[in-house]
Design goal:
- With 348 residues, this protein is of the alpha/beta class.
- Helices cover 43% and strands 18% of the residues.
- Helix 1 crosses helix 2, helix 6 runs parallel beside helix 7 and helix 8 packs parallel to helix 9.
- The longest helix is centred in the N-terminal third of the chain and has 16 residues.
- It is elongated.
- The termini are far apart.
- About 4% of the residues have low confidence.
């Protein structure tokens, strides 16, 4: 591989001129820039970015540590982050904690050693881990994504999940449902707990909420939850199920169709996140839409603000309910309550 010295020799200029062309081209005359750029092209020179960053003590890499790389929610968050990072000449890399606190800690310590520009993190636990504290003490900016920062002092972007659960509860009670199941992780993330809390607040005395634990936030786990839900006599089952994310909801839908259970006539299904698959499912899913790409872009904005020395900020966005065919008013049941302003009806 060609070196900077060889480029300088080919162009007949000093090492300093080559360095300026690479890093501060505006201070070099057009004629010299052209000579150096031609030499670079002829020799196939590729700059050693890692060595440059090591000398400067700073990186242009932003790391995103997510709970589950297979979840399209995080894919969209990363897309939003990458969109803004690219405009600032920064590279986004993704790490998967797989919902493991130990794996998350390993990622954070490695990223700290790499001197990344900053970290966007959806943490496994609410309380700051030792690894997260170390990263912050070493001066690496961290922005929490899809999680409030509490008293940790980190910048954060989150969605009002209590409101999201409340929107679902209002919609289902308004459609005549009185017994509603909720499914999420047994060791619930705060987001999952808050969605349940909002649901319970909206249902109140108008009905009851049954909680079914899922082994994971996946399609397969949703199928297993549905098998449990449909095991008893039809007359004793909940008439609707609210799933903590769309993957669970898709699994419930698949199992219902496999067993000949009609959606929404026999069981109404609501998901959360409104990933692309929700609208294109065999029975389009009612879901709570989160501004996923906006979360990613805003997280990068907050991180870059911290790099510039500005104070941490905590931002909370509002979700909206997108109503599709997987929920419907039950025959013979009057609607109760008013439709929430955030609800959006979508064809299909």
């Amino acid at each position: 591989m060609a070196t900077v010295k060889e480029v300088a020799q080919r162009a007949g200029v000093s090492l300093g001129t080559v360095s300026n062309v690479l890093n501060r081209p505006e201070v070099v005359s057009e004629a010299l820039r052209t000579r150096v750029q031609e030499a670079i092209a002829e020799l196939g020179f590729v700059r050693n970015e890692s060595a440059r960053q090591l000398r400067a003590g700073v990186s242009r890499t932003i790391a995103v540590v997510v709970l589950d790389v297979a979840n399209p929610f995080f894919t969209d968050v990363i897309a939003g982050a990458e969109d803004l990072a690219e405009r600032h000449d920064a590279l986004v890399v993704m790490c998967n904690s797989a919902n493991s606190a130990e794996r998350e800690a390993r990622h954070l310590r490695r990223l700290d050693q790499q001197r990344v520009l900053g970290v966007l993190l959806t943490p496994v636990h609410d309380a700051p881990s030792a690894a997260l504290t170390e990263v912050r003490e070493h001066g690496t900016p961290v922005v929490l994504v899809d999680r409030g920062s509490g008293s940790s002092g980190h910048s954060s972007v989150a969605v009002d999940d209590v409101l999201g659960g409340r929107l679902v509860g209002e919609h289902l009670v308004g459609a005549g449902h009185r017994r509603i199941a909720y499914t999420g992780l047994p060791t619930a993330l705060r987001q999952v707990e808050e969605r349940l809390r909002g649901l319970r607040e909206a249902v109140g005395a108008a009905g009851e909420v049954d909680v079914l634990q899922a082994g994971a936030m996946s399609v397969r786990a949703g199928s297993q939850v549905a098998a449990q839900l449909l095991a008893g006599p039809a007359a004793q089952r909940p008439s609707a199920v609210f799933c903590a994310n769309d993957l669970l909801a898709l699994g419930v839908l698949n199992e219902c169709q496999r067993r000949g259970v009609r959606v929404p006539q026999d069981l109404a299904i609501v998901g959360y996140d409104d990933i692309g698959f929700a609208a294109t499912a065999s029975v389009p899913l009612t879901s709570v839409r989160q501004p996923r790409e906006l979360l990613g872009r805003t997280a990068v904005e907050l991180l870059l603000a911290q790099v510039e020395g500005r104070p941490a900020q905590q931002l909370v966005f509002e979700p909206e309910l997108v109503v599709r065919r997987s929920t419907a008013r039950r025959a013979g049941r009057p609607a109760t309550g008013r439709p929430p302003a955030q609800a959006v009806a979508e064809a299909g």
